[in-house]
Amino acid sequence: MITLEVFVDIFSLRNQGFSMRAIAKKLGIHRKTVKKYLEGKMLPTYRKTKRKHSKLDPYRQTIRDFLENDDYQATWIHDRLRNLGYDGSYETVKIFVREVKEQNTRLAYIRFETEPGLQGQVDFGDFQVREPDSSTTTLHAFELLLGFSRGMYVEYVERCTMESFLDCHINAFKYLGGVPAEILYDNMKNVVIDRRDGKAVFNVEFIHFANHYGFTPKLCPPYSP
Q1: Does residue 67 lie in a domain region?
Q2: Residue 117: count of CB within 10 angstroms of its CB
Q3: What is the C-alpha to C-alpha distance for residues 172 and 178, in angstroms, rounded to an integer?
Q4: Would you state the torsion angle of the CA atoms of residues 159, 160, 165, 168, taken in this order, to the nearest 10 degrees?
Q5: 206, 127: one domain
Q6: Do both 141 and 215 map to the same domain?
Q7: Do 154 and 204 reside in the same domain of the chain?
Q8: What is the bridge-based pairing of β-strands 182-185 and 119-130?
Q9: Residue 81 neighbours by CB distance under 10 Å
Q10: DSSP-based three-state secondary structure for 219
Q11: Count of structural domains, the chain
Q12: Is residue 129 domain-shared with residue 175, that is, in the same domain?
């Protein structure tokens, strides 16, 4: 059984012109597995597993607070956590400290161009609109921006549902006259439902949609939209 992420990669590589054999070699899976999903176009199914709680969970915000004040080493933080009652491993602390430091030092992405038709970027933001009676209404703005031409489609909706999110995509594809090969997303809940061991868990309904329209979803690193 493959993951949704590998399923997406299979079709992405196929769209780039890779053979089944090349895809299998690149992803480290059997060629028959590649053939099965390319011909069947069926999403992989798997049983939901409960997320395991870590002894570090109650101390994660404390670690973030430490690192906001100074660039402390994991050994220093581990010693302080033990004084606060943490009895887990040092290795767990070290891994999380590294993740937080990477997030804190990651630079935001700025304007860039891609090849024609290669990539679009999607954002879904909130706007507060003041009505004539002084009340406030929240509208959600969907935006799809093409990386090469800077062509843009914007649509305002009243509810941030999966249905409206997908409908906005369809309207954008019609307006812009096509579908880019890949679309870059921030880590929004309609696209990503969880992160496990540093890897994104995609929304199954969204992956169905992306597969149907033939584009590959790509994610910005966390905290670097």
Answers
A1: yes
A2: 15
A3: 9
A4: 50
A5: yes
A6: yes
A7: yes
A8: parallel
A9: 21
A10: strand
A11: 3
A12: yes
Pairing verdict, β 199-202 and 192-196: antiparallel
d(CA 67, CA 154): 38
> Rounded CA gap, 173 and 144, in Å?
9
Q: Hunting for tokens 């033939």 — which residue is that? A: 214
| Binned average pLDDT, 10 residues per bin, the chain of 225 residues | 71 77 82 81 58 83 87 92 92 90 57 69 84 85 87 89 92 93 84 74 87 85 51
Task: Read off the tokens for 221.
Answer: 């690193």
> 77: which 2 tokens?
């933080």
pTM of the model: 0.53
What is the model's pLDDT at position 115? Answer: 74
What count of residues does the chain have?
225
| Neighbour tally for 130: CB within 10 Å | 9
Which stretch of DSSP H or E encloses residue 172? helix 162-176
The pLDDT of residue 108:
39
Tokens at 144, concatenated: 């799809």
Range of the domain at 26: 4-40
Is there a domain that residue 21 lies in?
A: yes
Do 202 and 128 lie in one domain? The reply is: yes
Domain-located, residue 99: yes
| 23 in a structural domain | yes
